Amino acid sequence: MGGKSKSSQSSTTTNNVDNRVFDFGEGINGDANLIDVKNSENVTVTSTDHGAIDAAAGIANRALDVNLESLTESYEFAGDAFNRAIQTVNNSAEREANNSRNSLNSITDLTKSLSTGGQTDIAKNMQNVMFAIATAGVVITIVLKTRN
Fold first, then answer.
1. Of 25, 46, 119, 132, which sits 20 to 30 A from 138 (CA to CA)?
2. Measured on CA atoms in the order 91, 96, 100, 105, is the torsion positive or negative?
């Protein structure tokens, strides 16, 4: 029948690194010659972000200012809402206290009237009638005296 077989596989990765510096323009001296920065003594390399860092800082500062304004307005709104809610609760409690007081006074008057068989109400009404008659008598007397 068949025999034994054996297979193997191998791979190799090679990384080539080139550390040379190229200038594809006119060269630093204008003569189209490349300069080996690594081995040169009087080479100055200047890099710039073209104002990107300052612009980013400005944007970040403006964002912080806007966030501060938003938080301040939110706290003011919450404080106003809280104060209005407390005032509403106080007004409601005051109205309920007045309603309870009026109800208690009405019940007290009704109890007095019922305990005296209505005589308290009759006495109050008679008192009001007598006051009206007395006031009318004084007015009539004054009018009659001023005519004479």
1. 119
2. positive
Count how many domains the chain has.
1
Report yes or no on 36 lying in a domain: no
Per-residue confidence band for 47, with pLDDT thresholds at 50, 70 and 90 = confident
Contact indicator for 43, 37 with CB cutoff of 8 Å: yes
Residue 104: per-residue pLDDT: 92
37 inside domain:
no
Cβ(34)–Cβ(27) below 8 Å: yes
Quote the tokens at residue 66. Answer: 């806007």
How many angstroms separate the CA atoms of 91 and 105, rounded?
21
Domain carrying residue 71: 52-120
Under the phi-then-psi rule, with left for phi > 0, alpha for psi from -120 to 50, and beta for the rest, what region is 101? alpha
* 44 — pLDDT class (breaks 50, 70, 90): low
Residue 60 belongs to some domain of the structure: yes
Tell me the whole-structure pTM to 2 decimals: 0.38
| Predicted local confidence at residue 58, as pLDDT | 94
In a domain, 83, yes or no: yes
